[in-house]
């Protein structure tokens, strides 16, 4: 997979905090015009992997390379805006680079958030915030677009629209896209390459390859791979006492969906996770 | 004109407030009030050092504050300094340590009252020059790092991902804080510096339409508080540093009145078209 044109490339990359490896041995790359999706249960190291690719975290072992003068557009999982900060959408759009009024409003229109331009960032709903953050990232005309859970808080129709928009931006701008998602169903359709993580790379390949892969089925439950008929998102909710996820038996939580609410979330995104729960089970 | 102690106090106080306002906005936005408190309490250690080594107080306070600011930031980054309790511990330990060090120096007479609550009526022309030269430097650097620092305030990860070096901006911001504390020590004293930083910023929140607007408003509100506080201290014979803080508090309470939102709309019109 080593090639010169890649926007970003991780080789055997891993991050250790104290004695625990958050993620280890990740080989991954994003080429221009390619959509790569990271999937995996909570705490599997998806966000950590993306942060290595972005250079926010430097790998404890292995390497992370980014192309020179790479323009990145990043949609983080959450923002921390204090109530004392008077921040409108218009000002937020210019957070990291200057924009003309036209560039600003046209990318907001693109994500369906044009009417929000004078709204206060603190008063946006989860879905509106996602649209605004995506618009800001797109307005930078990035070479690489990195999206951490881009559809959290969006309803089903909005979710499809956003994924279609991401595919379209990839086509028109030719940028590479690195996406993190809980959500297997729509991701499967949009991605060129899926990397399934659980502390390490479980499996990878095209969406249909991955969905048939044995370790993917173990990770997300046997039914998730069942001919893509039931797009059911099963977290593997067996957490060992040391905080690791036991992913051997995805079958134990099959008939008790309530476990989602009691199992400890390993990621800081527990609030986002609970937003997603409303659409966990879906027939496509 | 500068012969008059009251005029000197006004000029120095206004200068300090103009610098403290914009910086205070970042302290408020970044939820660092306790952090600023710790830094300003540590300024007493700087005073002790300046007496011991016979060097300029403002320089010594600035030096010690920079050192402690960087130390605090390293501790914070290694995540050992995350809790409120630990910052509170450090803040008051620094204060107590400074006081104990000063008490050991029996050969100098120290105006402890002035150190803790400010001694604005005794500012000299040299002090005024330091306030304005240092202040202009601080504001100029703040303007340069504004974009990365502001982006890092909204999301540090986002700023880092998009190549704005948030860590560098944060280190510089810490140093600016230390400089402002050194400047403001004589005006309001170690115990009240945080008030001069955050109360005008908090008061500006209600009338501000954008972050930049809020920074300007905080500077102006701080200056008004200095003038109001000094005049009331003059007429009612109250201590000047605390009077300034009380005046700032008064403006903050006024800012909570509903009628003031009219100002905000005016502000949003002015700022609206700007990039």
UniProtKB/TrEMBL annotation, chain A:
Family: Belongs to the ABC transporter superfamily.
Gene3D superfamilies the UniProt entry points to: P-loop containing nucleotide triphosphate hydrolases
InterPro entries in UniProt: AAA+_ATPase, ABC_transporter-like_ATP-bd, ABC_transporter-like_CS, Metal_Ion_Import_ABC, P-loop_NTPase
Source organism superkingdom: Bacteria
Bias-annotated ranges (Polar residues): 267-278
Biased segments, Basic and acidic residues type: 240-264
Keyword tags: ATP-binding, Cell membrane, Ion transport, Membrane, Nucleotide-binding, Translocase, Transport, Zinc, Zinc transport
Pfam family, any one: ABC_tran
Name of this protein: Zinc transport system ATP-binding protein
Molecular function terms from GO: ATP binding
Domain ABC transporter: 5-223
Region spans: Disordered: 240-284
TM region(s), chain numbering: none
TrEMBL record, chain B:
Domain of life: Bacteria
InterPro entries: ABC_BtuC-like, ABC_TroCD
Membrane protein topology class: Multi-pass membrane protein
Keywords from the named record: Cell membrane, Ion transport, Membrane, Transmembrane, Transmembrane helix, Transport, Zinc, Zinc transport
UniProt-listed Pfam families: ABC-3
UniProt record similarity statement: Belongs to the ABC-3 integral membrane protein family.
Official protein name in the record: High-affinity zinc uptake system membrane protein ZnuB
Organism: Roseibium denhamense
């Amino acid at each position: 997979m080593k090639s010169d044109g890649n926007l970003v490339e991780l080789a055997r990359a891993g991050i250790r905090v104290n004695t625990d490896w958050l993620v280890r041995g990740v080989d991954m790359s994003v080429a221009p015009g390619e959509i790569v999706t990271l999937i995996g249960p909570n705490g599997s190291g998806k966000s950590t992997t993306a942060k290595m690719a972005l250079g926010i975290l430097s790998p404890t072992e292995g390497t992370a390379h980014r192309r020179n003068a790479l323009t990145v557009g990043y949609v983080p999982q959450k923002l921390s805006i204090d109530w004392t900060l008077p921040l409108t959408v218009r000002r937020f759009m210019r957070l990291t680079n200057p924009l003309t009024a036209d560039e600003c409003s046209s990318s907001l229109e693109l994500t369906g958030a044009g009417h929000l331009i004078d709204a206060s960032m603190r008063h946006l709903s989860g879905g509106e915030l996602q649209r605004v953050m995506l618009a800001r990232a797109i307005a930078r005309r990035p070479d690489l677009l990195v999206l951490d859970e881009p559809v959290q808080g969006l309803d089903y129709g909005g979710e499809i629209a956003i994924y279609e928009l991401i595919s379209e931006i990839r086509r028109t701008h030719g940028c590479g896209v690195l996406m993190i998602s809980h959500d297997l169903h729509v991701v499967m359709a949009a991605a060129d390459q899926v990397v399934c993580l659980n502390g390490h790379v479980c499996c990878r390949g095209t969406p249909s390859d991955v969905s048939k892969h044995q370790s993917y089925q173990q990770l997300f439950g046997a039914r998730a791979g069942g001919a893509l008929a039931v797009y059911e998102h099963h977290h593997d909710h067996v957490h060992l006492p040391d905080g690791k996820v036991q992913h051997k038996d995805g079958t134990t939580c099959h008939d008790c969906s309530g476990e989602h609410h009691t199992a400890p979330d390993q990621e800081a995104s527990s609030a986002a996770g609970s937003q997603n729960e409303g659409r966990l089970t879906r027939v496509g | 004109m500068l012969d008059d102690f009251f005029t000197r106090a006004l000029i120095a106080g206004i200068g300090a407030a103009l610098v403290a306002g914009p910086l205070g906005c970042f302290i408020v936005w970044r939820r660092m009030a306790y952090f600023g408190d710790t830094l300003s309490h540590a300024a007493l250690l700087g005073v002790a050092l300046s007496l011991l080594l016979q060097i300029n107080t403002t320089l010594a306070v600035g030096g010690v504050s920079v050192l402690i600011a960087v130390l605090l930031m390293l501790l914070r980054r290694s995540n050992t300094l995350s809790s409120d309790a630990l910052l509170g511990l450090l803040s008051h330990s620094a204060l107590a340590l400074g006081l104990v060090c000063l008490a050991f120096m029996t050969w100098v007479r120290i105006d402890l009252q002035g150190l803790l609550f400010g001694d604005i009526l005794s500012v000299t022309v040299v002090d005024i020059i330091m306030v304005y030269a240092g202040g202009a430097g601080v504001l100029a650097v703040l303007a340069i790092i504004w974009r990365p620092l502001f982006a890092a305030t909204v999301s540090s990860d986002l700023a880092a991902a998009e190549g704005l070096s948030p860590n560098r901006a944060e280190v510089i911001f810490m140093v600016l804080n230390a400089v402002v504390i050194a400047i403001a020590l004589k005006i309001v004293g170690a115990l009240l510096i945080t008030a001069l930083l955050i109360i005008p910023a908090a008061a500006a929140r209600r009338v501000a339409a954008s972050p930049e607007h809020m920074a300007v408003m905080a500077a102006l509100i701080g200056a008004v508080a200095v003038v109001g506080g000094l005049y009331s201290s003059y007429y009612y014979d109250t201590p000047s540093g605390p009077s300034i803080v009380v005046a700032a508090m008064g403006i903050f309470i006024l800012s909570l009145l509903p009628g003031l939102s009219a100002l905000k709309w005016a502000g949003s019109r002015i700022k609206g078209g700007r990039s």
